[in-house]
Amino acid sequence: MSHLGYLLAGWITAVGVLAVYAWRIIQKGKELSSKVPEHRQRWMSPSQDT
Prior knowledge:
Blueprint: H1 3-33
């Protein structure tokens, strides 16, 4: 493999790992947000109780 090959392989691996990590974080956030009771979803509406 040439130097360019190693460079591309490293970049593709790094970007791929970060993309998979970001996708998992977003999926986990969606899963957890669906479990929050409606009256506790503060990002949806202002909450009077703190």
